[in-house]
Design brief:
single chain; about 350 residues; 6-stranded mixed β-sheet; 6 strands; about 10% strand
Length: about 350
């Protein structure tokens, strides 16, 4: 599972607190302005954030839910919600992957794979959050199109080989669950979660205004199987009310985490980046759809703004890379069984 900073040193907590304040702009006035202004994240003063935050750090993962991956519509809006995984934690995930793949030697690690999808709709008793069956079908269709490369422009993308098949939809009208999913998350999952590590459980519910969704990683399953899955803001599904984020790619992004991918900006400009060779290094998450952005000019390639594992607007997201596809296949075989072959 993704770890929260609980148990860290006082210095770590102090640094993260200052980072959180920097991300919301509250300490911006205490730092000198940089000589050359850099691209800003929404709500972020780069000089302050860079002074206090580790490379690639961004708020958004809810530590109470112990979620490892996240997508935010405003990277400055969730400073009190938790932190992304650290470079050390990412390295631990990588080590666990490599150890798990030892037993797969000599075995063909090749898709296609079909992933059963169980969607759990958490709504309020007044009907808020009661997404339609059509929206759910549309979300699964977006996943299939994204993972087979239909959104890619020219030769930029790849067919990952993963396919998604809706297996069940459950509906729960509960005001407490809807208003605070994270507080009731354990009870919700214990009652609703289906299948084993190969089943994608998606929970749609109300999330804070800046938070679009979050996910666990495959490495988390063995220690805490009930928490395995993806949580998505109900208004971020296709046709939802979350402006700029209602085409379904929050689901695409979070399922990428569920299949083992890090953000494209993991580790910032420092090796090994996101552990994928064909995604260029990126110092920080993208917002909107910036053109020609290059936050790691000393590294080859411009920022992967249109990659599904960034924080760009839905309309800007177009593809996974071949390296990301291989990494998802590795995680599937190592941790999700690899048994659901087409």
């Amino acid at each position: 599972m993704g770890r929260s900073p609980r148990g860290g040193s006082a210095a770590t907590w102090s640094g993260l607190a200052l980072c959180a304040l920097a991300m919301t702009g509250l300490v911006a006035s205490s730092l000198p302005e940089p000589d050359q202004p850099e691209p800003q994240r929404s709500g972020v003063t780069p000089s302050a954030a860079d002074a206090y935050c580790p490379p690639g750090w961004d708020p958004g993962v809810d530590s109470a839910a112990r979620a490892a991956g996240t997508r935010v519509s405003d990277p400055g809006a969730q400073a009190d919600a938790g932190v992304e995984i650290t470079p050390e934690q990412a390295a631990e995930y990588e080590e666990r992957l490599r150890d798990a793949l030892v037993s797969q030697r000599g075995r063909e690690l090749a898709p296609p794979y079909t992933v059963p999808v169980a969607v759990h709709v958490i709504s309020a008793t007044d009907g808020r959050g009661a997404v339609s069956d059509q929206q759910i079908r549309d979300q699964v269709d977006v996943l299939n199109r994204a993972y087979q490369g239909d959104y890619a422009l020219g030769s930029e993308g790849t067919d990952t080989g993963f396919r998604f098949e809706l297996s069940d939809v459950t509906r729960s009208a509960d005001d407490a669950w809807f208003d605070d999913f994270n507080r009731h998350g354990d009870a919700i999952r214990s009652q609703l979660r289906q299948g084993g590590p190969e089943t994608l459980n998606v929970y749609t519910t109300e999330l804070d205004s800046g938070l679009l969704g979050y996910s666990t990683f495959p490495q988390d399953y063995q220690d805490d199987p009930e928490r395995d899955g993806v949580v998505i803001a109900y208004d971020a599904l296709p046709g939802g009310g979350r402006e700029r984020f209602n085409e379904g790619h929050t689901g695409t992004h979070e399922v990428g985490h569920w299949l083992g991918l890090f953000h494209t900006f993991q580790n910032g400009c420092q090796p090994p980046g996101d552990y994928v060779d064909d995604t260029p290094y990126e110092r920080e998450a993208a917002a909107g759809c910036p053109k020609g952005r290059d936050t790691c000019p000393e590294r080859p390639g411009r920022d992967p703004v249109t990659n599904f594992m960034n924080y760009s607007d839905d309309a800007c997201m177009t593809h996974f890379t071949q390296g990301q596809a291989r990494r998802m296949v590795e995680h599937w075989n190592a941790f999700r069984g690899g048994s659901a072959r087409v």
